[in-house]
């Protein structure tokens, strides 16, 4: 899908703001139905339209599903790490397939806006290098993640598959321009390959006929020479990436998509919706739960086996992140000297539990041990924490209610929820593998609540896990469609707030909630996340991000129970809260939107 957008320049923002280029539609008033707003009305576009996945007027747009909202990648950021890595991989693949006979002499990476402002703390530069080197976020070895920068510095070259070693100096060839904001999106980057074209190729001149620009790159930022290829990408949040096409006079963008995604986009799902109101109406009409309806849509696009396999993989990676996070000690990278807390908390919680009931403990080497699982349901042996004397999985392990330690203080269960969230987010901060859910900065919330369901809810089972993920993805898709999940666009309310809403909805669904109760769960969690700023200290996804995930996970559980205690009727709709979040994010100063120029980022002393 290609979206053509008119662009104009605005010289300055409000006092204290950076000079910015805007899409004219970003200056808007309230829209009661943002998913049907027309460009001609002069109102802002929903994030999914800006991202190119949805159109404005197609009422049968395919909703985002579980395969869209849960993606496996590496930390610390989906928009600043996973997205740029995908862009780098796309560019290297393009070179190998379209310019294989060229002699590449130089690669230049330009990072703009928020990608540049917090790019070093988010390892954006490293992510692009990993992608250019041919690595995929889902499968790249963590040892390679940790070593690639030192390897490039030692060799003085970049190894792009299919080409000879290319001279490369990180300080020279990766340029950070935080005050250059592109019209389309704040997270922009351009990769350019210079050299000698093959005999059958046409070189692209770096300087156009006007002598000032190539695509959207100011000449001063590019330099002179012959460019074999130059691509501009936009990392729009959650690992979603757009590529600019066309020319500056009539720019357009198109999403990066796999062959499977492109094929799926051509299939109309049986139950299309663009709002929670429409989703609830479909559930009422069909008698299906939100999870059942989401699965029906998923299986229209791919086999049920493929959907199940994806959810199993998501569950396994979440569990492995908890396991690694609770057993890995040390200081997180980046210079803030943040000590990993999950291992210490795990030891304290386990000690308290053992004192409460002799003989109970984790299977294997403490927290994260992999047990045998139940005889009839062994899926919990995929790396999640196994609780109980037998180290078993769902059902048998969910016996904490009998523990005298919890009888003395039932709220001690929150400690375990905190543990699960801290473990995942510390792994994310270390740049290790996690599930983008729906972003990396909020990656600990859904695993924490899902693990709470697994270990503290009697009767928890595999089908409940699937329902959790399906319903959570449906809720997250609504937020992405009608607002944003990117901290660089709407602040942390779009990341942690969205994840908390997804977790609350998923948990309510797993507990058997009605569609109205599930929607109410999401509404409560999001409503009480409104206004959260994204102001990471040092540009790192550590302070306040790690603790914030733990707090939001507990909030999600509370939101679900509050909704389940009622019959689903409530005063504020989820659609209203989504639109409120979007408006709040639009009004929020850019210094509170993943630029580290305000809030805690400037008031906490880095030492």
Report the CATH architecture of the domain at 75-260.
2-Layer Sandwich
Figure out the total of helices: 23
Shape: globular
Query: How many E strands?
Result: 16
| Mean model confidence by pLDDT | 81
CATH H-level superfamily of the domain at 75-260: D-3-phosphoglycerate dehydrogenase, domain 3
Q: What is the CATH C-level name of the domain at 75-260?
A: Alpha Beta
Give unreliable regions as ranges: 1-45, 200-224, 358-402
How far is it from the N-terminal to the C-terminal residue, by CA? 47 Å
The proportion of strand residues reads 5-15%
Taking all Cα atoms into account, the compactness measure Rg is 24 Å
Secondary-structure class: alpha+beta
Largest sheet: 8 strands, mixed
Give the helix level as a range of percent: 40-55%
Q: Remind me, CATH topology of the domain at 75-260?
A: 60s Ribosomal Protein L30, Chain: A
Q: Could you write a compact summary of the structure shown?
A:
With 607 residues, the protein is α+β, with helices and mostly antiparallel strands. It has helices at 47-50, 66-69, 78-98, 113-117, 124-132, 142-155, 170-173, 219-222, 259-265, 276-286, 290-301, 304-327, 342-356, 404-408, 413-429, 445-456, 462-482, 487-490, 496-510, 515-527, 545-564, 574-587, 600-603; strands at residues 3-4, 8-10, 20-22, 71-74, 103-112, 157-158, 166-167, 174-177, 187-196, 204-205, 213-214, 217-218, 226-237, 240-247, 250-255, 433-436.
């Amino acid at each position: 899908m290609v979206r053509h957008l008119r662009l104009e320049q605005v010289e300055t923002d409000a006092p204290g703001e950076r000079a910015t280029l805007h899409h004219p539609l970003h200056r808007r008033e309230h829209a009661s139905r943002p998913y049907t707003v027309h460009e001609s009305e002069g109102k802002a576009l929903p994030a999914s339209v800006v991202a190119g996945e949805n159109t404005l007027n197609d009422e049968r747009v395919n909703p985002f599903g579980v395969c869209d909202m849960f993606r496996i990648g590496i930390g610390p950021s989906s928009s600043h790490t996973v997205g740029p890595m995908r862009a780098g991989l796309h560019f290297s693949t393009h070179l190998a397939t379209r310019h294989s006979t060229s002699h590449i002499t130089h690669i230049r990476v330009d990072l703009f806006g928020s990608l540049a402002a917090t790019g070093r703390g988010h390892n954006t530069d490293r992510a692009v290098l990993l992608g250019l080197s041919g690595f995929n976020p889902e499968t790249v070895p963590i040892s390679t993640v940790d070593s690639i920068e030192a390897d490039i510095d030692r060799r003085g070259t970049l190894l792009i598959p299919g080409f000879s070693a290319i001279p490369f100096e990180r300080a020279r060839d990766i340029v950070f321009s935080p005050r250059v904001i592109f019209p389309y999106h704040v997270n922009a980057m351009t990769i350019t390959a210079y050299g000698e074209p093959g005999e059958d190729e046409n070189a692209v001149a770096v300087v156009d006929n006007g002598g000032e620009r190539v695509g959207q790159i100011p000449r001063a930022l590019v330099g002179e020479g012959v460019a074999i290829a130059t691509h501009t990408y936009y990392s729009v949040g959650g690992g979603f990436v757009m590529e600019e096409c066309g020319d500056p006079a009539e720019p357009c963008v198109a999403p990066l998509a796999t062959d499977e995604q492109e094929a799926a986009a051509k299939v109309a799902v049986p139950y299309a919706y663009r709002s929670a109101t429409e989703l609830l109406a479909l559930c009422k009409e069909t008698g299906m739960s939100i999870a059942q309806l989401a699965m029906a849509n998923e299986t229209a696009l791919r086999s049920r086996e493929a959907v199940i396999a994806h959810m199993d993989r998501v569950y396994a990676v979440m569990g492995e992140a908890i396991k690694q996070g609770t057993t890995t000690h040390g200081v997180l990278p980046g210079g803030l000297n943040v000590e990993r807390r999950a291992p210490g908390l795990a030891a304290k919680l386990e000690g308290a539990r053992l004192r409460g009931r002799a003989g109970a403990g984790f299977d294997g080497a403490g927290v994260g041990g992999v047990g045998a699982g139940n005889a009839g349901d062994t899926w919990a042996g995929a790396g999640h924490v196994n609780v109980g004397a037998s180290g078993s999985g769902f059902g048998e392990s969910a016996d904490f209610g009998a523990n005298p330690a919890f009888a003395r203080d039932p709220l001690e269960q929150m400690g375990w929820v905190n543990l699960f969230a801290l473990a995942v987010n510390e792994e994310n901060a270390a740049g290790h593998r996690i599930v983008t859910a729906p972003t990396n900065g909020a990656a600990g919330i859904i695993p924490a609540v899902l693990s709470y369901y697994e270990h503290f809810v009697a009767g928890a089972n595999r089908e409940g896990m699937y329902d959790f993920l399906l319903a959570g993805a449906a809720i997250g898709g609504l937020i992405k469609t009608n607002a944003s999940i990117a901290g660089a666009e709407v602040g942390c309310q779009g990341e942690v707030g969205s994840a908390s809403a997804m977790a609350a909805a998923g948990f309510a669904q797993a507990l058997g909630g009605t569609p109205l109760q599930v929607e109410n769960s999401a509404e409560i969690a999001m409503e009480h996340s409104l206004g959260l700023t994204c102001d990471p200290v040092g540009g790192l996804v550590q302070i306040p991000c790690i603790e914030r995930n733990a707090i939001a996970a507990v909030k999600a559980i509370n939101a679900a129970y509050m909704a389940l205690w009622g019959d689903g009727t409530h005063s504020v709709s989820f659609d209203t809260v989504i639109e409120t979040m979007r408006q709040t994010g639009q009004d929020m100063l850019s210094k509170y939107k993943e630029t580290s120029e305000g809030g805690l980022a400037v008031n906490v002393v880095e030492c």
